[in-house]
Amino acid sequence: MFDGLISIEHLRVDSYTLCCAQPKTVGKIQCTAPVNEISSCNNLIDIPFLSTLIWYIALLAVFGNLFGPFYRGFLRNTQNLASFVIYSINLSIADFLMGVYMFTIAGANLKFSGRYGFEDEGWRHSHICTVVGVLATLSSEASALFVLLITIDRIIIIRDPLSSLKRSNLVSKIMTGTVWAISLFLSLLPLFGSDYFENYYSSSGICISLPLSVYRKPGWEYSMALFVGANFLIFIAICVGQLVIFATVVRMGVNVNSSHSAQRRREINLAKTLVAVAITDMLCWIPVGVIGLLTFTGIDVTTQVYAWVIVVVLPINSALNPMIYTFSEILRRRGKTDKQPIDVKINMSKARFFLDKRR
Questions:
Q1: CA distance 59 to 57
Q2: What are phi and psi of 31, to 5 degrees?
Q3: Count of other CB atoms within 10 angstroms of residue 35
Q4: pLDDT (tens digit, 0 to 9) for every residue of the chain, 359 residues total?
Q5: Which of 23, 151, 215, 295 is deepest in the core (most CB within 10 A)?
Q6: Which of 292, 316, 311 is nearest to 46 (CA)?
Q7: Would you put residue 184 in left (φ > 0), alpha (ψ -120 to 50) or beta?
Q8: Contacts of 219 by beta carbon, 8 Å cutoff, 6+ apart
Q9: Taking the chain, what is the end-to-end CA distance rounded to the nearest angstrom?
């Protein structure tokens, strides 16, 4: 299309990828196009540091969340899993899906390195991009809902340790199925919509439609309601639950030397772990919600901020959750194991003392 245009000086196009095709032999051409949030003519992720960091986040999210369900489910009695364990295993599965999404985006960035501008159209409209976009939406909503379920479960167990919900897995399994059904419905709905959802997942090279730009993409109202509105309500509920848990734990700390002290300490430790997970999730979604509200009012963010939110802020809780949940439990169990020989020695010394005294 540039043949014969030897004196061209300025281009105004509707896609930045057309600027990538300008001939270098003509001289410097001023090309005006809508700014892409994260990509360039050379790379899907245009910031070198982020294109490297995404591999490490994906690695933590995938292998950390693979180890979590294995440790909690397969190394323990799978016939008698507490509701907390069931929810945390499913939370790991949801976070694992985010790791798969990150690995796919990182792989596409590596595959198209140096020529992404020519591959943009084909990549965005590929089946792989659509699938990983569905996985990312499914993961984000399921993760938020499972943290909410864990919060509610901890409130019930801490306030009423003898609750029948603790002994029955039926309710937790029903709630787990409901969360996955709702999340799957919300992630698949744009695929079966009308023209309103046209190119919903293919509107960006990262294959997920986040409301973080003043440019109104197809289905932006749905994206705003889902990622900003719904998640805001979920995390408000989580915050309220955390306050209830905190108040209960403080009150329980006074009576921790009761006859059920060991069980009480365990519930307190689980509550502390949940607080850490809830904080990381809120630190993840609060920036998304704030930026979404800013763009809704017409205030745009820089491309660097957008890129950091997509690559780091959005998936970071999926990488941190297994470390907080699983590895903290491993350390607690190791601490208990290390204390057992000391307790045995103390008990043996007590036994010898009473035997000597009787003699």
A1: 5
A2: -110, 120
A3: 11
A4: 777 777 778 888 888 888 887 776 666 778 888 777 788 888 999 888 988 999 999 998 888 888 766 665 555 554 445 787 888 889 889 999 999 999 999 999 999 998 998 899 899 999 999 999 999 999 989 988 998 898 888 888 777 765 555 556 788 889 999 999 999 999 999 998 677 888 889 888 888 888 777 677 788 888 888 888 888 888 888 888 878 877 777 776 655 445 455 655 666 666 666 666 667 766 777 777 777 777 777 777 776 777 788 788 778 778 777 777 666 666 555 555 555 444 444 454 444 544 454 55
A5: 151
A6: 311
A7: alpha
A8: 190, 193, 196, 197, 200, 209
A9: 107
Q: Give the span between the Cα atoms of 55 and 53, in whole angstroms.
A: 5
At residue 11, the 3 state secondary structure works out as: strand
Task: Name the phi and psi angles at 86, rounded to 5.
Answer: -60, -45
The rounded distance, in Å, linking the Cα atoms of 255 and 276 is 24
DSSP 8-class letter at 35: P
Reported as type and span, the H/E element at residue 30 is: strand 30-32
Select from 189, 217, 224, 222 the least CA-distant residue to 202.
217
Overall pTM > 0.90: no
Between CA 93 and CA 139 the distance in angstroms is 8
Q: Which two tokens stand for residue 223?
A: 């994206």
Strand partners for 30? 10
User: CA 165, CA 153: separation in Å to the nearest integer?
Assistant: 9
Contacts 24+ apart (CB under 8 A), 156-161: 157/83, 157/84, 157/267, 158/245, 158/248, 158/249, 158/252, 158/267, 158/271, 159/248, 161/260, 161/263, 161/264, 161/267
Query: Using CA atoms, how far apart are residues 140 and 277, in angstroms rounded to an integer?
Result: 14
